[in-house]
Amino acid sequence: MPIDPYILLLLGTVGLAALFPARGSAADVASGASTAAVALLFFLYGARLSTREALDGLRHWRLHVTVLACTFLVFPLLGLAARGLVPVILTHPLYQGLLFLTLVPSTVQSSIAFTSMARGNVPAAICAGSFSSLVGIVATPLLAASLLGGSGGGFSADSLLKIVLQLLVPFLAGQLLRRWIGGFVSRNKRVLGLVDRGSILLVVYTAFSAGMVQGIWHQVSPARLGGLVVVEAVILAVMLLLTWYGGKALRFGRADRIAIQFAGSKKSLAAGLPMASVLFGAQAALAVLPLMLFHQMQLIVCAVIAKRRAREAAAEVTAPKPGAATRTVVGTGTRSG
Fold first, then answer.
1. Which pLDDT does position 155 carry in this prediction?
2. 79-89 burial, b for 16+ CB within 10 Å, e for fewer?
3. What single string gives the DSSP state of each residue in 66-124?
4. DSSP letter string over 282-308?
5. Nearest Cα residue to 39 out of 167, 192, 206, 173
6. DSSP 3-state helix, strand, coil percentages of the chain (rounded to 5)?
7. What are 74-113's pLDDT values in tens digits?
8. Cα–Cα distance measured from residue 96 to residue 189, given in angstroms and rounded to the nearest whole number
């Protein structure tokens, strides 16, 4: 079972925030650094995304529309349906985080990795993940403002302006400058990946420090946490089944169905964490908890499914074709006669 090492780093950061939360002037410095880190993250997202590759993928539009519908329509509907679990199973703040989880765009890297492992349509997975990330820059904040309302993080004109300045403007700047810095970004992918992850760790530390100072962790009991895990497991199972059998009902080939299943059933931790820090402000700690749990759960479950799909594909390749077997039998019978 894969345990993402980055999840361990995130948990370590949460522990650090619990023991040594940023207070006073230190909190102001951490907040400013976190704001700059979020802007840097989305600038790098824009610089990495190849507009030409994304446009080339439009010829497979049915697959991309299917993935987008799963990510930004079916997932949110499941999140809204979970509203009936409040307050029996989920507290209202945990439900807010769960609903936010359903609004986040799909992953790119893990969707590609699992699709490749399962012998699916890797180019389609690349384009689907890129489209989802691109649409999520606009769709996730708008859906959050619409579905979470003022209780999510005080959404207002000022909040929307902050979203535009911290998320959309840096992303567009990265796209515009890609012509000149794209080569540098590609050559230094490993180093910039560390910058990405370090920035997200800073965002998590700032959010959880604010949560510790405000004492919000008294709202989460082990029973509530267990209930959240069960609810997320059900949502993940529903999406995995829907993407696989829905793809079959829509008459996609096996390779395309694999790409749809892995790109349409997962949520991006890398995109969701910085978005939550902007959207929820001081309440971001509880908002990102469901996303962190779901991220690790989807890695474990999808790794098992990918290996199973790979075994099935290998068995189909090695299995003798019924037509060939029949021709051999008929030929033998003829010679005997």
1. 53
2. beebeebeeeb
3. HHHHIIIIIHHHHHHHGGGGTTTTS-HHHHHHHHHHHHSPPPSHHHHHHHHHTT--HHH
4. GGHHHHHHHHHHHHHHHHHHHHHHHHH
5. 167
6. 85, 0, 15
7. 999 999 999 999 999 999 889 999 999 999 999 888 888 8
8. 34
Token digits for 72? 């930004």
Supply the pTM of this predicted model. Answer: 0.80
Q: Is the peptide bond before 87 cis (omega within 30 degrees of 0)?
A: yes
**Nearest of 270, 254, 221, 245 to residue 91 by alpha carbon:** 221
Write b or e for each residue in 166-187: b if 16 or more Cβ atoms lie within 10 A of its Cβ, otherwise e. bbeebbeebbeebeeebeebee
Task: Determine the 3-state secondary structure of 81 from DSSP.
Answer: helix
The predicted pLDDT at position 65 comes to 93
For residue 58, give the DSSP letter: G
- Between CA 34 and CA 30 the distance in angstroms is 6
Amino acid sitting at position 332? T
